[in-house]
Amino acid sequence: MAVLELINISKHFGAIQAVNDVSFAIEPGQVVGLMGDNGAGKSTLVKMIAGNFRQSEGTMRMDGAELIMHKPIDARQHGIEIVYQDLALCDNLSAAANVFLGRELRRGFGPIRILDYANMYKRAGQIFAELKSETRPRDLVKQMSGGQRQAVAIARTRLSEAKIVLMDEPTAAISVRQVAEVLNLIRNLRDQGIAVILISHRMPDVFDVADRVIVMRRGRKVADKSIGATSPEEVTGLITGAIEQLA
Question: In 3D, which of 35, 158, 53 has the Cα closest to residue 95?
Fold first, then answer.
């Protein structure tokens, strides 16, 4: 069964049609690349899945049941996590503190409760080990590479037993070595049965790690193909409009 299914999803802001009649499904442990030019509707679509926007028309289903969300916390409660391009990390805090930001562990009784740093460091270390990341819980984020920062942001998604992780341009503006590290993090999520929707402009990254690629243009889905059944040249043509649409 699909972990997430979108059925005829549309979103308009007044007279502007940002997303128009988009349908697709994603299964557990599947990585789907979401591609398209700026303004194609990718970010709006992902924000609807993340609970930031409510769709104007259409239905979303999760594990077969209709998914109704009014705010991002609703998405998180259903096992949907998002890693934004800016990562939303606090540079002056440790990796562990960022992982637990807003969901800190506490110990004590009654009104006297203090932060449980020992268990936060321990759990963060376990998550980094599961992700096969070299990031250490006590390291300050401001001293980290781009790849390590991504590891911290992805580790946050593991606190809530996510079923699907949405990633917005995770390999933008980082080095080749760090790109490889981030792609390995995505593979580790996939291997744990977590579905991933990867928004990216980087064609090699999508073809390296994704099972399928969905292409959007002017708010519409123009293709949904397995990686083995398409090519970077075809996807480029679909993005630019040189190829109109695939069935």
Answer: 158
Nearest to 30 by CA among 187, 240, 243, 220: 187
Dihedral-angle region of residue 136 (phi above 0 means left; psi in -120 to 50 means alpha; beta otherwise): beta
Q: Using one digit for the tens of pLDDT, what is the confidence trace for 173-214?
A: 788 888 898 999 999 999 999 999 999 999 999 999 999 999
> CB 243: neighbour CB atoms within 10 A?
17
Residue type, 225: K
Identity (one letter) of the amino acid at 95? A
The domains of the chain are located at: 4-89+162-240
Q: Residue 101 region, left (φ>0) first, then alpha (ψ -120 to 50), else beta?
A: beta
| φ, ψ for residue 75, nearest 5 deg | -65, -45
The token duo for 50 is 């993340």
Three-state DSSP at 157 gives helix
Do the beta carbons of residue 208 and residue 185 sit within 8 Å? no
Architecture of the domain delimited by 4-89+162-240: 3-Layer(aba) Sandwich (3.40)
pLDDT digits (tens, 9 = 90+) for 96-141: 999 999 889 998 887 888 989 999 999 999 999 988 888 999 999 9
36: region left, alpha or beta (phi > 0 left; psi from -120 to 50 alpha):
left
pTM above 0.90, yes or no: no
